[in-house]
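== Sequence and structure of one protein ==
=== Format: two labelled lines per protein ===
==== Data for this protein ====
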Amino acid sequence: MRIKTLKNTLILAVMALTSTSMQAQDLLARQAPVDKKMKKVDSVALNRLIYQEMLDNPASDLYDEFDNISTHYRANTPLPDEATIDLRGFCMPTPSRLITSNFGARWGRQHKGLDIKVYIGDTIRAAFSGKVRVVRYEAKGYGKYVVIRHYNGLETYYGHMSKQLVTENQEVRAGDPIGLGGNTGRSTGSHLHFETRLCGVALNPALMFDFRNQDVTGDFYTFKRSKYAAESAQATLLRGANASSNSVGRLETDADDDTEMAIAAPEASFAPEVHFHKVKKGETLQSIAKKRGMTVDALCKLNRIGKNIRLMPGQILKYN
């Protein structure tokens, strides 16, 4: 009798498990098309968000064309006397806080952006959402560089990278990886050359980006021709690389590319407290320390490395 009862209990348990398994399979079967539909809805929602950004922001009003040919946009209409740029939803292009060269006059030329210290292979990210306009290599200039047109009206330039991770006409979101830090083109050490342009005119990035505090200067930046010079000089004083205040701001034509440039920064300078050495093939910690007039211990401590580290050509080391 007990054996018969046990047998019946086992049969009921198996039936219950089978029923549960079948119900689970039915649930998965019913859920599959729902998952596909939700994935489709997510894609549609993302596309709508991107489209809405394009409608809500002034890029479509400021630019009458989008091409992958010219690096610098040649506006058929002049830079507006006033334009408000939405800086919300930003991402700092690099976590580096060290500015090594300011916007403005440098070595008899005009430096149209900020140089930010990065190392070869560091991730460079899109500052805002937008569309990649140019991905190119310029041996005597930007090296491997990317230009992105953003929905807020700005175009940002990222130069001297070791590798580009995006393609022309690709939609990107703020924070998406677009390249790797490098030392390509006309460069004396690994760094990111970062430009902000409005209608083809280079504006001082320090007006909008505070690299030292890893933030933007506010939710909005309003460009005004009448106040730009003073504001740009002040921005360099506050957020540049050891800048002085003896500069005169003006709008003028750059001799290199005939693109109008807003100049308001003093003579660019490198931070005196830190210098950088690019490792050459065959160099050792001992040879570098001797060349730079310091001990191996001091060199290792400054760079937080061990004495047995294997140096690679192109590697950047700090020295005083």
Remarks:
- The mean pLDDT is 78.
- The radius of gyration is 27 Å.
- The first strand starts at residue 82 and ends at 86.
- Residues 35 and 41 are 10 Å apart (CA to CA).
